[in-house]
Design brief:
Rossmann fold, seven-stranded mixed β-sheet, four-stranded antiparallel β-sheet, 12 helices, globular
Length: 304
């Protein structure tokens, strides 16, 4: 079925507590209706969402929105050459994150699953770290890139897989949970795949940071591809409702080339970014830059 078969948006309940009572958080100010454009790229489009905040648990999410089928099809048909261009930088970022979390993660040799693994940068880093790393990714383009790199990656979503129950020591959602139409269903499926002492790692754009509060509706992670906008509190709550206990949070720092960051700033319409790109020498554009952009890493374990 083509993505054009899903032309209407419908109200959705809170993805955390299922409440249907919410208040307006932000109105959209950009009019894009084509699901293929809204969900066909990891970068998404700023300003297209009608965001609400749950009166019960405080979760912020898009409602009304397109169907899960339309959203997933957009992900599966996307071409992410731009995202994949920063592959070495992403591998380095993931490896540094694993090192910083090492005392709280499974030991070397553990079997790890990365859901929404893109071109496999985390799998590469995890393999170097000593893990038996597996990945799932809806984008056919990125799956092919990952396989070219010799990584254990397949096209699909957590709702459809062939893995045995209790077969992983750690399962990761790196910048993925905000994309999932049904995050609780995904976490419940993940709970089945984890060993009893396993670890769930969730990295997410955090709308609860001071940067998000200052940026307001121009917060750079308010994008068409991000259906849900989590804070540490709502992340802990959704984990709790799906049988997990969140026990650790830390800021996530990435390393990307300066020129790529400039391109993203232009895409997000950050003032003066166009001018800065034009006057930046090419050699400076290639410099790797460590930065923090309001992302939070959460570790959780299955409740006993």
């Amino acid at each position: 079925m083509s993505i054009q078969s899903f032309p209407r948006k419908s109200p959705v309940a809170c993805p955390v507590c299922d409440s249907t009572k919410s208040d307006l958080y932000y109105e959209p100010w950009v009019d894009v209706q084509d699901p293929a454009k809204l969900y066909g790229a990891a970068s998404g489009i700023p300003g297209t969402q009608h965001l609400v905040q749950c009166q019960s648990c405080g979760m912020i999410f898009e409602s009304p929105r397109y169907s899960a089928e339309a959203i997933i099809q957009g992900y599966m048909e996307s071409d992410e050459a731009g995202h994949d261009s920063q592959y070495p930088m992403r591998v380095d970022s993931f490896y540094r994150a694993l090192e910083s979390l090492s005392q709280r993660l499974p030991a070397n040799g553990a079997r790890v699953l990365d859901i929404g693994t893109a071109g496999g940068a985390f799998l590469d880093a995890a393999t170097r770290f000593g893990y038996d790393a597996w990945g799932m990714e809806p984008s056919q383009y990125l799956v092919e890139r990952g396989k070219e790199r010799g990584l254990q990656i397949e096209q699909g979503t957590i709702e459809r897989h062939h893995f045995e129950p209790e077969s992983f020591d750690m399962i990761c959602l790196w910048d993925v949970i905000e994309h999932l139409p049904e995050p609780k269903a995904a976490l419940s499926e993940i709970a089945k795949l984890l060993k009893p002492e396993g670890i769930l790692l969730i990295n997410f754009p955090d709308i609860g940071t001071w940067q998000a509060k200052v940026a307001g509706r121009r917060f750079w992670w308010i994008l068409s591809v991000h259906l849900h906008h989590f804070t540490r509190k709502t992340t802990a709550e959704i984990c709790n409702r799906c049988g997990f206990e969140a026990f650790y949070f830390q800021r996530y720092w990435q390393i990307l080339q300066f020129g790529y960051l400039e391109d993203m700033a232009i895409h997000y319409k950050i003032p003066l970014s166009d001018f800065l790109k034009k006057v930046t020498p090419e050699f400076i554009q290639k410099i790797p830059i460590p930065y923090y952009a309001s992302q939070t890493t959460t570790l959780a374990r299955l409740k006993s």
